[in-house]
Amino acid sequence: MKFKWIFLTFIITIATVLTGCEPLLVLDPKGPQAETTANVIWISIFTMALIVIIVITLLTVILVKYRASKQADNYEPPHIEGNPIVEGIIVGVPILIVAFLSVVSVMSTHQVEDTPVGYEEQEPLVIYASSSNWKWHFSYPEQDIETVNYLFIPTNQAVEFRLYSHGTITSFWIPQLAGQKYAMSDMITKLNVVAEEPGEYLGRNANFNGEGFAENTFNVTALTQDEFDTWIDEIHETAEPLTEDEFTEILAPGHLGQMTFTGTHLDFAPAPEGENGGHHHGSGDTEADEDSEHHHDEGQTEDQESEHHQH
Q1: What is the share, in percent, of the chain residues with pLDDT greater than 90?
Q2: Residues in CB range of 175: below 8 A, 6 or more apart
Q3: Measuring CA to CA, which residue among 100, 18, 107 is closest to residue 51?
Q4: Residue 164 in contact with residue 195, Cβ under 8 Å?
Q5: What are the helix (H) ranges across 114-263?
Q6: Helix (H, G, I), strand (E, B) or coil at 230
Q7: Which among 267, 49, 266, 44 is positioned nearest to 138, based on CA atoms?
Q8: pTM beyond 0.70, yes or no
């Protein structure tokens, strides 16, 4: 009796707590990329729930039907041969489940990596999102502005985030708009996003990177195109230009509030892409590189010959 009341109290407490919880952000999408991710999560939940229900049902039936009972002392259970139908189900069903979830995962991964359907013809708004301990820097090269720890984007507009880090690896994540993607110090990764509803969304670093990780967050505001254009104009009228010295101070480990500048740090601290990429150190012109290397070798040969004659 005591156990019964403890169990009922536990159930009521859990129900009360869950009633007061806000909906999970990943299951409340506001854009096509996040909607694809949410659909995959729901498919996985329903698939696993179906499996659990079937397994528990079968377990209950077996425990009841084949439970120990009082038999004669000389009772011998019948010899049962293997059943090919049962064995086929046991092996085949898990294979079908894994195959189904694999197909769903591959298809959804391609969908969230590409520009959302219906926005392929749009010229995307390019925003460089870079992290430092423990801040986020958003550079708008076309609009010639930069913000720290907050982000404005227009609705129904393809946005291409180019991600990298000024230090440790971080993970850029706006749960209601897209899945997370890593930002690294020596290369650019890209994330396509579309916000289809105006509003404010939470963004954060989803990869642990030290003591300031918990507050490594940023705010995202989705505006109509007219409101976004007005915001850009207001920044150019009121914000101070970003200098190299000030940017260096901002990079120092620590937390900061929201900041706004005209100009971007890309002018004096370029992103790791193209000539500044961590995996490419040439000029980009193969023939020019070969000529330079050939002349360098010739210069070395002439120096060696001159040194030989001097001896």
Answers
A1: 68
A2: 25, 26, 34, 201, 202
A3: 100
A4: no
A5: 225-238, 244-251
A6: helix
A7: 266
A8: yes
Give how far Cα 110 sits from Cα of 102, 118, 126, 186, 218, Å. 13, 15, 20, 24, 27
pLDDT score for 80:
77
Closest CA to 196 of 31, 37, 34, 29: 31
Q: Do the Cβ atoms of 128 and 271 come closer than 8 Å? A: yes
Whole-number Å distance between alpha carbons of 48 and 42: 10
- The amino acid that residue 37 corresponds to is T
Angle, nearest 10°, between helix axes 32-65 and 84-113?
A: 160
Question: Contact at 8 Å (CB) between 183 and 163?
Answer: yes
Instruction: Report, as an integer, the average pLDDT of 125-135.
Output: 96
Q: From edge to edge, which strands make up the β-sheet containing 150-154? A: 150-154, 217-223, 199-205, 170-174, 178-183
Token pair of 104 as six digits:
């769903």
Average pLDDT over residues 282-288: 45
Residue listed under structure tokens 């937390």: 255
